[in-house]
Amino acid sequence: MHKKGLLGQLIQNLCCLPGVGPKTAQRMAFHLLQRDRNGASMLAQTLLQAIEKMRHCRQCRTLTEGELCEICADNSRDDTLICIVESPSDAWIVDQATMFKGRYFVLHGRLSPLDGIGPDELGLDLLEQQLATGHIKELILATNSTVEGEATAYFISELARKHQVPASRIAHGVPMGGELEFTDSGTLSHAFNGRVGM
To answer: How does pLDDT run across 129-157, given as a tens digit for each residue?
Structure first.
């Protein structure tokens, strides 16, 4: 049942968030309106400011307020090492979870010809310009292990090879603390084929 009015509109608009269905949106709306109107007001103001001021970094294409993001503006980072990710959230996660001190390049998607997403939509012309400088020593491909993610990683590795830049792929397989008994066959096969020496 679709409710009309501001409350119904708020619930419907909250459903645009990933993983938020009508029930969760309804709980969020009632919480903000009944228990945390100040928080709701701050959320609305911050969201409006972010929409107005956030743009893509001119170097790595992540989200930033300035021309360069904090990582690209950080002179202590290794300019010769670039990690390729599909989204700004992937760069955020890698940076928090690892000791990676290089730079990032954000694709904002992955190759998907059926959806009309080709190299131009992923900004690969900008990446190729960076590769052509001869300054980059390695690309780390951290795209997701979906069919499209693997195809994207392969395409970029060929681009890197053209410019004689080594490309490596992050490992995929059995997670830390995972048990083989509960690991799906595709993940186990990938892990087995990608095994490394000890």
So the answer is: 999 999 999 999 999 888 899 999 999 99
Which 3 state secondary structure label does DSSP give 138? strand
Asked whether residue 22 is assigned to any structural domain, the reply reads yes
CATH value at residue 131: 3.40.1360.10
| Count of CB atoms situated within 10 Å of the CB of 104 | 27
The number of domains in the chain is: 2
Radius of gyration of the chain (CA): 21
Distance CA 152, CA 61 (A): 17
Tokens of 32: 């903000």
Written as six digits, the tokens of 183 are 């690991």
**Whether residues 89 and 163 fall in one domain:** yes
Task: Determine the structural domain holding residue 79 and report its residue range.
Answer: 56-169
Q: 115 in a domain, yes or no?
A: yes
As a whole number, mean pLDDT of residues 178-197 equals 72
Both 63 and 155 in one domain: the answer is yes
Instruction: Let me know: does 94 contact 85? Beta carbons within 8 Å.
Output: yes
Phi/psi for 138 (5° steps) reads -160, 140
Q: pLDDT tens, 157-186?
A: 999 999 999 999 988 777 777 776 777 777
pTM of the full structure? 0.82
Task: Say how far apart CA 106 and CA 88 lie, in whole Å.
Answer: 6
User: Two tokens at 92?
Assistant: 């955020």
72 and 38 housed in the same domain: no
Question: What proportion of the chain, given as a percentage, has pLDDT over 70?
Answer: 95
